[in-house]
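Just scan my protein:

——
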Amino acid sequence: MADLTTSTLPPADKAPTPFTHTRISALFSRLIVALTTFIEAERDIEDVDVWDPAFDGWLGAAETAQTEVTTLITEIRTTAPVRAADRPLARMTLSLDGMLGAEYRGDYLHFRGLLDKYAPLFRAQGSDVVAYRVNALLQSARQRVEDLATLDCLADDAPNVVPDLEAEIDADALTLTA
């Protein structure tokens, strides 16, 4: 008379693979936090008199934050990718290195423009948990890139004189097919 209808899903054949960090993804995660700290420290000192001893702690905090960021960038750049999803993180780190090293706003905008020009190279491919987590890290980094653009230290304008980062990105793209 009545049909049997179950209200629970059948058990999955295989449990989803949890995300595990590689050295690059773990360092990149720390880099995002360090970038956030650096940006806040830079904002704190934008409108203060750097010679006023009352702000020594703020200047020290900004220098410490910058050192942490550059140390993490160096560690990521010297670490070999373990999986394909590490490559977009390494590329974003390379771009961030260029942006942070930019002395002029035009140079910063050049590196920032590479993120859009080579958008597929700054995204993990696939729909698995690794690609999802890596793309979330990359999205957080892009938000920090936009935050960097608001800093006064990048307000100076001058002609662009930047290293050929595009050649390095192109060379990296070629190694993906091999």
The radius of gyration is 21 Å. The chain has a mean pLDDT of 83. The CA atoms of residues 99 and 108 lie 5 Å apart.
